[in-house]
Design a protein that fits this description.
heterodimer, A: 190 residues, alpha/beta, Pyruvate-ferredoxin Oxidoreductase, domain 3, 22% strand, B: 391 residues, Rossmann fold, 2 domains
Chain lengths: 190, 391
């Protein structure tokens, strides 16, 4: 697992407009801040179009206030919310050598490994399936937070409960279930 | 006790307007200010803030409505950005000339064309001479703190001037970060009620914003100028008392490792934070560099700039706006003017960068400082350097 104790951790989310990548980054940052850490979440804004590739970012530092105000180009962790992005976006661009790539996909770990051929740690989860089952919609943003936490421990799972409740009200429980299921089912290649 | 919350900076700004219990908000939504006024409209609609929210058809009307509400003595807030600030332009002069303490958060944005919703300081610089007090902030906490101060400063009977708080669009407005939100009682203790001395009142009629023939116009403008310059004492007093109460300290020109530095970089707004990391790197590598951060833009802090720059050999100023066909960045021009008569002064190098939302990274700031040092030694036949542009 990546060393998250004593330094700034930078996370980049790849999604498509409307899939909730920005919401995910906001929720994780709020969870980190509620744990007493320093965190920053922000989107890469363009002309927002539903379905177009989008980026969103999180920085977390356990000890120090975060001063950098620029997009993340050398992430420690990359989360891919939409498997179709693998064909059109270089999701590993700038990913650090000790970094982690987390992908929402139906494909097997071996299959992904053989097509991406990356040295970095790899984790997969079929988050869309979980979201469809538990939320009734193929929107996997909150589900993917479970995979992020399982793989990196950047925040505690229970730290998401309050931000999810604030954001989703009566729908929060279902999102928490989806996140927890993803936490259980994420497969990691060390 | 203040509560530490993870919140979008725009929402924190709106919540601050609620904490000061504003009476009237009139605004037109424009990116990247939108979340501020949307959240205010929500707070008013659900009864959390007892204020009149006046929706209008343009920023010109927003500022015009603010004139009226401020003139009856109502605590008045608005927010805008970029083109919106430009559409307000003529009314901005009226607010300051009529001595109406309207408080406005500006989510700094580039100006068209080409259309850009992203951040820079083109909008700020275009309203430089409108007679408003103008304060830059570099993070969400400062946006909240200085908005509280803005209400107290602007409405102070010794001041009675409108105040803009400049907040970088997207770089700050759309970021979730930790902010200490003060308690209602702390805010009430710090920001006294607005007691406008001569409000419009049907039972006690006054005229405001009258016609001024040549015999009186210059005297009126001079009175306004004397007052704007004098507001600095009240601004300093406010920041001191804010520091006493909240333990966060503000001043017109702030420094970061600048005391012994031979080379200084000056920035405004959120870029100061990234720049401070470049200063850390360069100092760790043994370079004697420091950072100055311009917080108070109007009234311009002449004495503080002279004092801060006195012992440096080189001062590099990074502007985030152009002055087309002119002498370089607008802030740099003013700093050069402020230092010109000084016997001991640094060489000043003008850089323009970060236009239309272009990031400047830590490495980028190091490059600016190194290039600035080189220009100070070898000279340049250009008025300014534009950073990172492809030709």
């Amino acid at each position: 697992m990546i060393d998250i104790k004593n330094r700034l951790i930078e996370i980049r989310w790849h999604g498509r407009g409307g899939q909730g990548a920005v919401t995910s980054t906001e929720l994780v940052a709020q969870a980190a801040i509620n744990e007493g850490k320093f965190a920053q979440a922000f989107p890469a804004f363009g002309p927002e179009r539903r379905g177009a590739p989008v980026l969103a970012f999180i920085r977390v530092d356990n000890e120090k206030p975060i001063r950098i105000r620029a997009e993340i180009t050398k992430p420690d962790i990359v989360v891919v919310l939409d498997p179709t992005l693998l064909r059109i976006v270089n999701v590993t661009s700038g990913l650090s050598e000790n970094g982690i790539l987390i992908i929402n996909t139906k494909r097997s770990l071996q299959d992904i490994e053989s097509s991406l051929k990356i040295k970095q740690q790899l984790a997969i989860i079929d988050a869309t399936k979980i979201a469809q089952e538990l939320l009734g919609v193929p929107i996997a943003n909150t589900t993917m937070i479970g995979a992020l936490i399982k793989t990196t421990g950047v925040v505690k799972l229970e730290s998401l409960f309050e931000p999810l409740k604030q954001r989703f009200g009566r729908l929060a429980d279902r999102n928490i279930n989806a996140m927890e299921k993803a936490y259980e089912e994420t497969l990691i290649r060390e | 006790m203040a509560k530490r919350v993870g919140t979008e900076v725009s929402l924190a700004v709106a919540d601050t307007v609620k904490l000061v219990n504003a009476d009237v908000i009139s605004a037109y939504p424009i990116t990247p200010q939108t979340h501020i006024v949307e959240h205010l409209a929500e707070l008013v609609a659900n009864g959390e803030l007892d204020a009149n929210f006046i929706p209008v058809e343009s920023e010109h009307s927003a500022m015009s409505a603010c004139l009226g509400s401020s003139a009856v003595g109502a605590r008045t807030f608005t927010a805008t950005a970029g083109q919106g600030l430009e559409l307000m332009h003529e009314v901005l002069y009226v607010a300051s000339s009529m001595r109406l303490p309207i408080i406005m958060t500006v989510a700094n944005r580039a100006l068209s064309a080409p259309l850009s919703v992203w951040g820079d300081h083109s909008d700020v610089m275009a309203v430089r001479d409108t007679g408003w007090i103008q304060i830059f902030v570099e993070n969400g906490q400062e946006a909240v703190d200085n908005l509280l101060c803005a209400f107290r400063i602007g409405e102070d009977p010794r001041v009675l001037l409108p105040v803009m708080v400049h907040l970088d669009g997207f770089y700050l407005t759309h970021v979730i970060e930790p902010i200490f939100m003060p308690e209602q009682s702390e805010v009430e203790n710090f920001v006294p009620p607005n007691q406008y001395p001569l409000p419009l009142d049907p039972n006690n009629p006054v005229s405001m914003g009258c016609f001024a023939p040549p015999v009186i116009y210059a005297e009126t403008k001079w009175a306004q100028e004397v007052n704007l310059r004098a507001s600095k004492d009240v601004i300093l007093e406010c920041w001191n008392e804010f520091g006493d109460q909240f333990q966060r300290h503000y001043s017109p020109v702030e420094s970061y490792h600048s005391e012994d530095a031979r080379v200084l970089l000056l920035t405004m707004g959120s870029f100061s934070e990234t720049a401070s990391l470049a200063i850390d790197n360069m100092r760790n590598a043994g370079k004697n560099v420091g950072l100055l951060k311009l917080r108070l833009w109007r009234p311009f802090p002449f004495d503080e700039i002279r004092q801060a720059a006195r012992n440096a050999d080189v001062l590099i100023v990074l502007d985030r706006a152009m002055s087309p066909g002119g002498p370089g960045g607008p802030v740099c021009s003013e700093i050069k003017a402020a230092l010109y008569q000084e016997e001991k002064r640094p060489k000043v190098v003008s850089f323009i960068g970060g236009l239309g939302g272009r990031d400047i990274t830590i490495e980028g700031f190091e490059e600016i400082i190194n290039k600035g040092i080189e220009i100070s030694e070898k000279g340049s036949n250009q008025e300014y350097e534009i950073f990172g542009v492809r030709e």
